[in-house]
Amino acid sequence: MRNSYSEGVDELGLGTKGIVLNRDIKSWSINRKFMISCISSPSFLRESVKGSIKVINEIFECWKIMEREGMQVDFSEWTDAFAASVVTMAATGEEIPSVSNLFNSLNIKEKKPQTQGSWKDGAKFLEAIFTYNESMAFMMLFPTFIRRNFPGIKALNKKYLDNRDWINDKLEKMIVERRKEIERTPLNQPLDPTILTLLITTNTERDLEKISVSNFDRSLNDEEISSIVREVFTGGLDTTANSLGFIGFYIAQHRDVYLRMREEVLNVYGTIDNPDLTIESYGKLKYIEAVINESIRIFPTISLMSRAATEDVEFDGFKIKADTAVLSDFKALSNNPKYFKDPEEFNPDRFFNDKESIGKFTYIPFGNGVRMCPGRGWAMVQMKTFLIRLVCAFDVELVNEAADPKYFYATANRPVDIKLNIRTRQNHS
Ligand code: HEM
Question: Best label site of 62, 139, 246, 377, fewest CB within 10 Å?
Fold first, then answer.
């Protein structure tokens, strides 16, 4: 199990629904399999690369203006905007103006027009998702009696439950609308491979990918679909954005690594001028993958993760009672000199040249075992797309030389103030 029993988690609607905190194994397994089938389907990943490129182009247009104005880039703010747009588009097909909003918030005369037809409630929805993530920890931490009776805490409890209802209501309406759109679309016309559409159509006559989900042959009901889509947001938004933020810090700090990434792109695609990115080529980017792995080794965004014993068990001399949660500290593990030589040193080659020497349970930024992160493949695709484009388009350097990135902890490690000087790549570099 993910965690010990908590009434608060049930109140949030997560104890027997969705994936991350679901303790009903049958329902967890169905939801998890459906999520994995959708986000690893080739049409979804191809569309996600296209969507990511569109957002990256929009970001880089802004950066070029900022460069002309002699402005610095606060990298993690842009990776937040990147993930917000990409995940929302991939999950629902809705566009949100996170990039233009960020640009327009800067002290700069030129303003970007809002994307036409963008989702009116999009920004509010994403805010609600962050509040929902906060509420998970709150619900687990405070016993019901305290949540319902203590002044201050009671108000917070109400805010979190109202927030839960607001999100559920939005998702419910979205599913009803999408079902109608799908019904209106003739069978011979393709549907957009968004997560929402794929979840609705799997195991129906509209199942274009013929995604097979083990021996499970019924389609999902609205409540199941809603719980999975919500977890694409709660699990997949800031994890990817934060990881990219940390990666940005390390590659800006290590010019040699940056240039090797660019060289790899040249070797794989034959050009660094707008290379044609296909999902099939991503497996060849071994060095860029090593850079990602090394950055999230030093600074995993999720550094603590729990498991609860389902029965009394003895482990390494410790007696663990059934329904007791045990936390693993991923960051301590992957920075332990017992397992990694000079762990404080940023050295992607440890994942490139000598991958075999990495112990199975010493490097687990995506967890391990049956509850391992189901979104890791898709997250890797998003991060690789961003990094390939970045090294082709710009040269970057840290504004303030520092040994470690600044960050704060709020349910995850979040990089802040990763200020970069950016320069459009010159043709000869
Ligand atoms: C760089 C990005 C990401 C990182 C670092 C990350 C990290 C993690 C970690 C450490 C866990 C716990 C695994 C365990 O207990 O063994 C996890 C679980 C999970 N992640 Fe991710 N994740 C990322 C991206 C995503 C994305 C894009 C999605 C959604 C599409 C996602 C959805 C989930 C879900 C649903 C779980 C719960 C799995 C379960 O309990 O069965 N994650 N993630």
Answer: 377
